Amino acid sequence: MEADKQTDDKPHRHKLPPGPGRPKGSTNRATQNAREAIARFVDANASRLQGWLEEIHQQQGAAAAYRCFTDMVEYHVPKLQRTELTGQNGEPVAVKLMSGDEAL
């Protein structure tokens, strides 16, 4: 029995190298539009949000209301990346604490 073979009837075209694309870390339009839509929704419903959270608190408790609030805020306020601080040449950062009238 002869195996099925896939044949490419299209002539082979020379592929161009990819373009530069978006800069690293930039968002695409769809992501930006979604964030803006969520921000508009949150802003438009800010006055109602307190009532919704109070209702969730009464029905399901403080932990459920807190989770609901943090889940919603996560989409409105971007998460901050972890940042590592170092001194010169990768050395630890020296912190000197003073109290009283000493200048900081």
Can you characterise this structure?
This protein has 3 helices and no strands. It is mainly alpha-helical and 104 residues long. The protein is flat, with a radius of gyration of 27 Å. The chain has a domain at 48-78. Helix content is 44%, strand content 0%.
Write the layout of secondary structure elements.
Blueprint: H1 29-44, H2 46-60, H3 62-76
Helix pairs in contact: 2-3
Rg value: 27 Å
CA-based shape? flat
List SSEs in N-to-C order. Answer: HHH
Strand content: under 5%
State the end-to-end distance.
86 Å
Structural class: mainly alpha
Helix content: 40-55%
Supply the number of helical segments: 3
- Low-pLDDT parts are none
Question: Overall mean pLDDT score?
Answer: 78
Would you report the number of β strands?
Answer: 0
The main pleated sheet reads as: none
What is this structure, in a nutshell?
The chain is built from 3 helices and no strands.
Which tags fit this structure?
104 residues, mainly alpha
